[in-house]
Amino acid sequence: MNMNDILIMVAIVLYLAFMIAVGVVTSKKNKSSDDFYLGGRKLGPFVTAMSAEASDMSGWLLMGLPGLALMTGLAEAVWTAVGLSIGTYVNWLIVAKRLRVYSEKINAVTLPEFFSKRFADSSNILSVIAALVIIIFFIPYTASGFSACGKLFGTLFNMDYHLAMTLSAAVIVLYCTLGGFLAASTTDFVQSIVMTVALVTVVGLGAGAVNGFGSVFNNVSGLDGYLDIFKGFSVADNTTGTYGFLTIVSTLAWGLGYFGMPHILLRFMAIRDPAKLKTSRRVASVWVVISMGVAILIGVVGYSLMKADIVPTYESASAAETIIVDISKYISLKNGFFAFLAGIFLSGILASTMSTADSQLIAASSSVTQDILVDSMNLKLSEKKVMLIARVSVIVIALIAIVFAWDPASSVFRIVSFAWAGFGAAFGPVILIGLFWKKANRFGALAGMVAGGAMIFIWKFGIAKLGGAFAIYELLPAFICGAVAMIVVSLLTGAPDKEVEETFDSIHAALKE
Questions:
Q1: Which of 213, 248, 249, 258 has the most crowded CB, counting CB atoms within 10 A?
Q2: Which residues pair with 233 in a beta bridge?
Q3: CA distance 258 to 266
Q4: CA 320 centroid distance within chain
């Protein structure tokens, strides 16, 4: 290991040490399971906004999206970003405050518990099904984060992928088991800042390496479809495709996923003052647009760097997901200062991955402990035992995620897209309809959750294989299926209990004040 590598490693180690220190400090503030799962509803507006978006973007932002843009041009990357930007804004606009007020009114600290209490499901079937959905989809989602970490260190230090991935997972698990939700949210806020610095600086220095952005766009302008958001291009086999209306609509459907993301919805539930959510919405929306735009630009810059032999020649979008790592390695060769700076950039990649993985582990842990063991199985456990089981759950779920991430050829972008669709279809319709329609009942909520979640698998591994118009992003048809199922079943099974309707009316009256 040369001096440049050592300086990079020093920067990364300092960053990781800081994350663990945050876990140690915040662990002292966890007096109950509510603190561990929701931070006692004490988050400020900026931490709420930035931790929500940092936990949302993950390694997908700094690795998956640039790799996709590099190898396929602007079409899929841009329409995905547009859908996500719209989804972000609308989610903060219509869901955040209602969910915060509603969840506090019915005293719900996890998403499954919110479903159970919102629809007065005394059997807790809703809570169990929701908890299982969280576990099923969060394991591969968390695995994608571990995989990104493995690729990062493997590419940077010629380190064994499996060892790098496992060590990264261990650090994430350590500060999560110590500090819980508060640690995850606090570190996510810091990580969002690191991610922003990394994105902006890397794209600037990367473009500078090939004589500026003018040269960058000259290099890709000759590729028919690369810069055309209605065509699309494959660098791997030098072919141009058509990006039609149906494909655009299904890609925009990425935005629907926001309404069902547990780790984002929990941030809404955790803010200290609901009146501050307007500030959070503005901060989050601006950050999302800028960060995704810069991430796509890194991919475009990466093509020029690849042609100039500054970075390796990539054969696929999965392989190109290391582009920001390779740019950072190139920057580090200049001198010691740039090597340390590159280490900070690489910490940004690590930050983006950790900020999602930690939130997912906390949400999955709460599902196992609070929603299944305590609420559904009615186990009488002391707060100390609940906290212990929650921490053990984090470790067990992480171990399973490591198994899922064992294949180094796995694509971060594709894994995230599937898990994103799963949550969006299973929870999104239930959240939206549950917050805005008084007549929705527990039978409809159950039908919507099961139908939406099941359709993800049916469409992805069955119907989509037919090709043509059926080869669209599975989230769109599954979301529609879940919404229709919830509405139809609610209408067929009668109105909810009077008490449920009265609670709904009182909350909406309070929101109008």
A1: 258
A2: 240
A3: 12
A4: 20
Closest Cα partner for 80 from 397, 292, 302, 389? 292
Burial state string for 165-200 with b = 16 or more CB within 10 A and e = fewer than 16: bbebbebbbbbbbbbbbbbbbbbbbbbbebbbebbe
Question: Residue 416 is encoded by which pair of tokens?
Answer: 């995230």
| Residue 421 C-alpha from the chain's centroid | 11
Residue 422 lies in a domain: no
- CATH number of the domain encompassing residue 120: 1.20.1730.10
Q: Would you say residue 181 has pLDDT above 60?
A: no
Long-range contacts made by residues 206-209, C-beta under 8 angstroms, separation at least 24?
Answer: 206/298, 206/301, 206/302, 206/305, 206/327, 207/301, 207/304, 209/305, 209/308, 209/310, 209/327, 209/330
Rounded Cα distance, 199 and 64, in Å: 13
Who contacts 465 (Cβ-Cβ below 8 Å, separation ≥6)? Answer: none
Q: How confident is the model at residue 474 (pLDDT cuts 50, 70, 90)?
A: very high
Task: Report angle CA 431, 115, 261 to the nearest 5 degrees.
Answer: 45
Q: For the whole model, what pTM was predicted?
A: 0.80
- The predicted-structure confidence for 70-109, as pLDDT tens digits, reads as follows 998 899 899 999 999 999 999 999 999 999 999 989 988 8
Residue 327's domain comprises 3-415
What band does 493 get if pLDDT is binned at 50, 70 and 90?
Answer: very high
CB 207 within 8 A of CB 213: yes
Give the DSSP H/E element, type plus range, for residue 233.
strand 233-234
In a domain, 202, yes or no: yes
Overall domain count for the chain: 1
Is residue 451 in a domain? Answer: no
Alpha helices in 405-474 (DSSP H): 412-436, 442-461
Token code pair at residue 179: 């500090």
* Count of CB atoms situated within 10 Å of the CB of 407: 11
pLDDT tens for each residue of 422-462: 999 999 999 999 999 999 999 999 999 999 999 999 999 99
Report the pLDDT value the prediction gives residue 178, as an integer from 0 to 100: 57
